[in-house]
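Quarterly update from the structural biology core.
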Amino acid sequence: MTPTYTTNDWRGLPHYECDQCVFDTLDEAEMVQHIRDNHNPPQPKPVIEPKTTEVFAEVVKEEQENA
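Predicted structure, tokenized:
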């Protein structure tokens, strides 16, 4: 679920209120940055697995060296 914000009118100006906390601002870009910095969970680090053929080649090489 992406955190959201509410837009209201304040003396003729758009007023942005964070739905997750008490932060508010008159600048939409600042609101988007606030949500990005404070409410989005960090992205998981990608898991890099070795290719099966590379692992197999290493096993074969070790077996040949030990034979």
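Residues 1-42 form one domain.
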